[in-house]
Write a sequence for this structure.
């Protein structure tokens, strides 16, 4: 499997880019959000990729971060969500927005993606809510970086990232607090406001595990009104 491409953009289409990697052109499908963020033709670019292989199809999808790539994979495990719908969700919300929506159970935010109905959006939230904290914690990981020279390359994806959710402990540990703080920081919250929300959430319910702590803190940090 091809896990990452580094090369130069040959052209940008409506939903894909053609990346020239040492003379070989790869068509990589991307979300609207990713497409808008990419540079123009001739510029160096690097994308994490996920390849879909079926009897009648071989298609590459590209992502700027491992978090975005992992959400793409997880979204497609939900009944009724294929590659097109997963890309639509990521294009509408971004990786951080998907993390927040699923952690908070906000299926209305997921429903905003083109072509998604309320039942499917609710199914996405219900089936993936326990995996959100683990994926959110990946936010501090690397983003795809273009090669500084012409030695563009193709990397294979030999070990897919498969986040697992640890069994909740009977009482919150210091690691749960740190994981919650890390996840909130990865979503762009300042250390002070993240720490305040986590402390408040624990004060209201000291038995919260990591997932519950993140959800409670996000609710406290959500805009009021």
């Amino acid at each position: 499997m091809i896990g990452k491409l580094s090369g130069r953009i040959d052209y940008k289409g409506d939903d894909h880019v053609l990346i020239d990697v040492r003379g070989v052109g790869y068509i990589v499908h991307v979300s609207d959000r990713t497409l808008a963020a990419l540079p123009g033709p001739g510029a160096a670019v690097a994308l994490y990729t996920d390849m879909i292989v079926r009897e009648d199809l071989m298609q590459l999808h590209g992502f700027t971060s491992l978090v975005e790539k992992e959400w793409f994979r997880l979204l497609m495990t939900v009944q009724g969500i294929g590659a097109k719908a997963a890309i639509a969700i990521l294009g509408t919300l971004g990786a951080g927005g998907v993390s927040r929506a699923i952690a908070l159970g906000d299926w209305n935010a997921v429903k905003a993606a083109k072509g998604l109905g309320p039942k499917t959006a609710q199914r996405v939230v219900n089936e993936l809510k326990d995996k959100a904290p683990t994926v959110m914690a990946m936010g501090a990981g690397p983003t795809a970086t273009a090669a500084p020279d012409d030695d563009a390359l193709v990397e294979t994806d030999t070990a897919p990232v498969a986040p697992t959710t640890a069994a909740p402990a009977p009482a919150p540990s210091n690691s749960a607090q740190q994981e919650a703080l890390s996840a909130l920081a990865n979503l762009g919250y300042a250390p002070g406001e993240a720490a305040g929300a986590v402390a408040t959430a624990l004060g209201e319910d000291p038995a919260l595990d990591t997932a519950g702590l993140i959800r409670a803190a996000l609710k406290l940090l959500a805009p009021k009104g």
Notes: The domain at 2-65 is CATH 2.40.50.140 (OB fold (Dihydrolipoamide Acetyltransferase, E2P)). The beta strands are 2-12, 16-21, 24-29, 44-54, 57-63, 153-156.
